[in-house]
């Protein structure tokens, strides 16, 4: 039984990719979600040799994740998958009234593509797209860049849908 460690909370593109990797490789296994990929890598330092780490190629500082953990992790696979639809979502239906936008660092540039958004907004960065949606639901931010799955789970209104993004994912295994 394989455990794939990746970025959570539920609804991330990494979670979707982990399940797809297991399916495409005919592997029985579980997906364990972590607050950050760095947390997942630290956790894996003390796990079974069969555990894997799934990263996203646009994850901030993925290069650090690779090079800081060369003593016990190695890159063994890469693949491309369409993400969930990336969306701009809010509880507020008027983009002109949005003052704060939550986003994971990777897709934050999508905010500038939203028609009608007030140019005087600030960006708060979160550890994942799913966390950005949860923070919008909790009124920490007025809107977010997230996945359609996470926005729907949080009861947010989708104001712009950027569609799926072809994305690369990396698989890292423990060195035996």
TrEMBL record:
Domain Prephenate dehydratase: 5-160
InterPro entries found in the cross-reference section: Preph_deHydtase
Name of the protein in question: Prephenate dehydratase domain-containing protein
Lineage: Bacteria, Pseudomonadati, Pseudomonadota, Gammaproteobacteria, Enterobacterales
A Pfam family matched in the record: PDT
Gene3D superfamilies in alphabetical order: Periplasmic binding protein-like II
Taxonomy, superkingdom: Bacteria
Native source species: Serratia proteamaculans
